[in-house]
Fold this sequence. Notes:
By secondary structure, the chain is an alpha+beta fold. The chain has helices spanning 24-37, 81-88, 116-123, 128-136, 146-160; strands at 45-51, 57-63, 66-68, 71-77, 91-98, 103-113, 170-184, 192-199, 202-207. Helices cover 26% and strands 34% of the residues.
Amino acid sequence: MNIADLRKSYEKAELSEEASASDPLKQFERWLNEAIHSEVPEPNAMTVATVASNMRPSTRVVLIKGYDERGIVWYTNYASRKGKELAGNPFAALQFHWVELERVVRIEGRMEKISDAESDAYFHSRPLDSRIGAWASPQSQVIDGRTVLVTNAAKYAAQFMLNPPRPPHWGGYRLVPDEWQFWQGRKSRLHDRLRYRLNEGNWIRERLAP
Length: 210
């Protein structure tokens, strides 16, 4: 099969200005809840794009862990590649792709670390294995093999037993949005695409050509 011949007609839904929320966070919440209730695979998975000081972009998939009027929250190792890139360039882009619903949400904005108290609270709510894993994995670093991870996990499990503290290099980020885009697939590639951009504290909603 020629990969260029793979095509799909998108015909499940539409997105109009009249039916969309005036606040992008409310529109996001509406779509996220629909994705969860539709039982799409991992509706909380999102791609995070960052840019290094050499201007090379990179992406990875993480899980959203919270959202409110302040922004979108997720957690990671601050010493990872994405953490280092965000330290040098504190702007990022997020993307949710709910294939089964023929929908994409894109979010851009400034990144900030959340408070230690927020990171501590979430860390201690995680399963024990995940808390040990945060200590065991030198994320993004070259290692000799999986044995390194297994050995580290055993070492930290013995050291911390049932109460590992949050590692100082691990915690949460919040993306503070200044632009949202909502994309709904439509027939004949005439997709619906609404952008919300922040202008002097107010959200401006406008339609973009697909």
